[in-house]
Amino acid sequence: MKKIEAIIRKSKYSKVKKALHAKGINFFSYWDVTGIGHEKQGHVYRGVAFSTNDIQRRLLSIVVNDEFVQPTIDAILKAAKTGEIGDGKIFVYEITDAYRIRTGENGGKTLK
Question: pLDDT tens across 48-60, in order?
């Protein structure tokens, strides 16, 4: 099992969610996050331009069995890409075990 974390543009979330559902990935968590990166966002308030280093993004957390790792990554890469700085990052972690609280089952079958 692997945990995939993806930091994406908020504007791409809907497209990424649809792409994940199309690959059979129907269970994941997400959070709105703020980070600091290479992208600089400019804002205009009452005609005055100013810059901020705080960048709004969405963090997806997805745990999948090994056979779903590459399809999940491919779906995110394709749906989240704009080709501009600030498209985001994907991280993959090893998961040693998982437990279903209701039944006490453990292992990859808990993800079905």
Answer: 665 566 788 999 9
Q: Which residue has the tokens 């609280």?
A: 101
Which helix or strand (DSSP H or E) is residue 64 part of? strand 48-64
The reported pTM is: 0.84
Three-class secondary structure of residue 11 per DSSP: helix
SS3 of 85-103: the string is CCCEEEEEEECCCCECCCC
The CATH number, out of the four listed (2.60.120.260, 3.40.50.300, 3.30.300.10, 3.30.70.120), of the domain defined by the range 2-111: 3.30.70.120
